[in-house]
Amino acid sequence: MEFVPFEQAVEIWDTLRKPVNAKERQSRIEGKDIGELYPYYGATGQVGYIDGYISDGEYVLLGEDGAPFLQPTATKAYLIHGKAWVNNHAHVLRSKYNNAFLCYYLNSFDYQGFVSGTTRLKLTQAAMKQIPIPAPPLSEQKRIVSRIEELFSQLDASVAELKTAKERLKVYRQAVLKEAFAKFHAFTSLKQASERIFDGPFGSNLKTADYVEQGVRVVRLENVKNAWFDNAKRSFVTREKYQTISSHTVYPDDLIMSTFISEDIKICQLPVDVGFAVNKADCIGIRLKSGINPRFVMFYLASREAYNALIHQVHGATRPRVNTKQIKAMQIPVAKLREQDTTVIEIEEKMSICDSIEKTVDTALQQAEALRQSILKKAFEGRLV
Fold first, then answer.
1. pLDDT, mean of residues 187-210
2. pLDDT band per the 50, 70, 90 thresholds, residue 295
3. How far is residue 342's CA from residue 96's CA, in Å, rounded to a whole number?
4. Do 307 and 262 contact (CB within 8 A), yes or no?
5. Residue 382 pLDDT more than 90?
6. Half-sphere exposure in the Cβ direction for 379 (13 Å, CA)
7. C-alpha–C-alpha distance, residues 317 and 138, integer Å
8. What is the largest CA-CA distance in the chain?
9. Where is pLDDT greater, at 319 or 58?
10. If exposure means fewest CB atoms within 10 Å of the residue's CB, which of 76, 215, 333, 381 is most exposed?
11. CA 171, 176, 179: angle at the middle one, nearest 5?
12. 351 vs 168, 169, 211, 297, CA distance in Å?
């Protein structure tokens, strides 16, 4: 496939962009109907609305800064149509031949060596102009676009089925919990069942600036999920800092619950391999009394029944949450320890099947994204038939 210099195949319309901060945009759209507004675009897509437009037509937007340039399967370029406003985080481009062809190519391109910066990568206009552009005949560009879209359509259908399967697993998990706890009819408050229920250190007692690369683990909201601990994001403080906030220590027998409530209750048990940690603000530590299986309580509080009992107490519009007092008042089933242990075993046996299926689905979704990139790669190597 023949390649030509960037500006031989692409028109650069970066003059058709202007940044407007969120506060000003809000003041400009306040009280106006959606029909009076226009999409406001940034590096990776639409980021809001505004009451005017700068461009009108079909353009390809390519991130200038803030785009995931070095992530092979991530979107760096996208098409827009009609009246729009673009900020200064995206280049505004128009192909001299076929916009869709250009957009697909820019999403397949390896930007290594073309972008600069460390934490926030930037593709300057000068660097962008160095990108070679494939320029087969227009008829061939249209054929390639048609074939890409045909294959992507098939892939999208498969991805939709996989995502539906994941949603069904969520429903099944809740059905498992509902069935497991249906036999219990006596309840007590979480406060009565606990030795201690405590929040993490607030404000200046623990700041982002206190985090270091290794030391004592800090449990943050990102780690607390619905009946599981997400170990992907890790934060630490020094031993010296820990001594000042050690009263907020959580251990593997402790539960940790988020005060923020949206689609479900996020509660988990601290993994044994963590040893001990500090729970951050809004991560409520729950230390249960002896004779109570922490996972029995965790699974119940992760259930839809517990969520439905708590949701009417949620307050706050932008960040819906509950307070420690409301968490202490939550009701949990009363059962002998043997019954608790048996219930946990039954739940975990069924959940392990769900976990296995979900892992298979997640792998398939990752493979689908890799296949999408493979399709683009073959298309611009002239190997897509």
1. 95
2. very high
3. 68
4. no
5. no
6. 30
7. 52
8. 77
9. 58
10. 381
11. 120
12. 13, 10, 34, 16
Scored b (16 or more CB within 10 A) or e, 205-241 reads ebeeebbeeebbbbbbbebbebbbeeeeeebbbeeeb
Asked whether residue 90 carries a pLDDT value surpassing 90, the answer given is: yes
In the chain, the amino acid numbered 312 is H
Task: Give the pTM.
Answer: 0.79
The CB-side HSE value for 330 (13 A sphere, CA atoms) comes to 30
User: How does residue 364 score in pLDDT terms, banded at 50, 70 and 90?
Assistant: very high
- What domains sit in the chain, N to C, each tagged with a CATH number? 3-135 (3.90.220.20), 185-334 (3.90.220.20)
Q: Which residues of 102-131 are buried (b: 16+ CB within 10 A; e: fewer)?
A: bbbbbbbbebeeebeeeeebebeeeebeeb
Average pLDDT, the chain: 96
How many CA atoms lie within 13 Å of 52's alpha carbon, on the beta-carbon side? 11
Would you say how long the chain is, in residues?
Answer: 385
pLDDT of residue 316: 82
Task: List the structure tokens of 155.
Answer: 């892939």
Q: Which helix (H) or strand (E) holds 79?
A: strand 77-80
Rounded CA separation 6/143 (Å): 21
Q: How many CA atoms lie within 13 A of 160 on its CB side?
A: 6
